[in-house]
Specification:
alpha/beta; D-Maltodextrin-Binding Protein, domain 2; eight-stranded mixed sheet; two-stranded antiparallel sheet; 11 helices; 24% strand; transcription regulation; WH_DNA-bd_sf; transcription; DNA-binding; Regulatory protein, LysR:LysR, substrate-binding
């Protein structure tokens, strides 16, 4: 089977838009020319890659397989181009780091600062993602390193223990629970909460813990950041569970921290890489720096 990157990009555009005409408009190519490229691609594959129907097109099983490989190839081509440009500007390494909000808030800023001071020729691109997306991105080569809460045993990844992370309760100063020094999560469920956004690992975990106790986690507001969560609690709009170290960063007057006694409130972040050992020397250097920083903090 023979294909070029331009044809693969056009094929993915067809899948993304659901029609050849929409893809042609997005990619600034004549619909007839795009249709011809797709037909030639199918002829080269020896089988249909698209199912045509009245409302547009969708991928066949073979088309979905090709799409997965095409996305990987296009990412790798873009990475190669970026690496060449980096070398032209004196950059000697490039690492794509995906991490969850908890690690970015509490640990990564200082550790990345010290790493970049030691390796000024390395460029690190950091993107915040929820833990489930972090592991998928690393497995699919979209990211080189991932920092996340261990949530699955996705094949093809190797995990390393990173920092410990303790969850605590934040309450307004005048709240009935403000007098408590510690309590269990179940004891908080009589009150309305402020939670992180619905797709976050924290929201998933707290929903699960409440369900395990046959209780409802009543969330009045969802926040997209820890500082927003603290502000909502400070305004008396609910109580919230968040990492203890993050509370130290965003704490305001008029709120109180209460420790959680649940075992699950003491978590550990993990770092993941692909198990195929294809990481660059810069990625391996960053991994060792992060692991050493975590060990030093124990």
């Amino acid at each position: 089977m023979r294909f070029d990157l331009t044809t693969l990009q056009l094929f993915l555009a067809v899948l993304d838009t659901g029609s050849i005409s929409a893809a042609a408009e997005r990619e600034h190519i004549a619909a007839s020319a795009l249709s011809k490229r797709i037909s030639e691609l199918e002829r080269s594959a020896g089988m249909p890659l698209l199912t045509r129907h009245a409302r547009g097109v969708s991928a066949t099983s073979a088309g979905r397989s090709l799409a997965r490989g095409a996305r990987l190839m296009l990412r790798q081509a873009a990475d190669l181009s970026a690496q060449i440009q980096d070398h032209a500007h004196g950059v000697r390494g490039h690492v794509r780091l995906f991490a969850n909000l908890s690690s970015i808030t509490q640990f990564l800023p200082g550790e990345l600062k010290s790493f970049l001071a030691e390796h000024p020729g390395v460029r690190v691109d950091l993107e915040e993602r929820v833990s489930s997306v972090v592991t998928r991105a690393v497995a699919e080569s979209e990211a080189d390193i991932g920092v996340f809460f261990l949530s699955d045993d996705r094949e093809g990844l190797v995990h390393y223990p990173y920092h410990k992370d303790e969850m605590a309760l934040l309450v307004p100063a005048g709240h009935p629970l403000a007098r408590r020094r510690s309590l269990s999560f179940v004891q908080t469920l009589d009150y309305e909460h402020v939670g992180m956004h619905r797709g976050s690992a924290a929201s998933f975990m707290l929903h699960r813990r409440a369900n395990e106790a046959n209780r409802e986690w009543r969330v009045r507001f969802h926040a997209t950041s820890y500082d927003a969560l603290v502000a909502l609690v400070h305004a008396g709009l609910g109580i919230g569970v968040m990492p203890l170290k993050a509370l130290a960063l965003y704490r305001q007057e008029g709120v109180k921290i209460v420790k959680l006694t649940d075992e699950w409130a003491h978590r550990r972040l993990s770092i993941c890489l692909r198990a195929d050992d294809t990481q660059s020397s810069a990625a391996k250097q960053l991994l060792q720096h992060l692991l050493a920083s975590a060990r030093a903090a124990e």
